[in-house]
């Protein structure tokens, strides 16, 4: 898992430049055989999750499904948590392309506040669609969510947009964390089980937060 911190946000109102994607499962160019093994492992893990759910995902089961030694998986992904984050990275790459270069309001071309709202709503929908995977990744270790590469990119993206939307002197880094906080899978799990709240309820709450914080 890539724990690099994002660079400081630009201070101008111009759209942010393309940023290398700090994802957990891709750290260096791969040999052809390593790339094939990675694809076999992730495809096997995806099939297991589709058939049995994330709770049944184990390194041993993936190794058997992929026809690859357990040691290869541990060397490549570290442990089960690393494998879960790698599965999420498969979707994260597409999502990052959408909010960095896709059509507005999620992508460039809309007002900053509209882009922030579209971004948070998209994260809520993704969190609901991939709930078991995200919950397993976040629960894998204390602070796992905040050390992940995708969280760093999401935070940096929000900081950039908030810098454009808020007056100078606003603590946009804190505000970005505050806006991402309701999208924690651990909190969403509580809201689901205790409050009966789904993705639409989360998005309505995020809209309230935006009105209170951005006006």
From TrEMBL:
DNA-binding residues (ranges): 58-77
PROSITE patterns, A to Z: HTH_TETR_2
Example of a GO MF term: DNA-binding transcription factor activity
InterPro entries named among the record's database cross-references: Homeodomain-like_sf, HTH-type_TetR-like_transc_reg, HTH_TetR
Ranges annotated as biased composition (Pro residues): 1-21
Region (Disordered): 1-34
Domain of life: Bacteria
Transmembrane segments: none
HTH tetR-type domain segment(s): 35-95
Protein's UniProt keywords contain Acyltransferase: no
Annotated keywords: DNA-binding
Gene3D superfamilies: Tetracycline Repressor, domain 2
Protein name, entry field: AcrR family transcriptional regulator
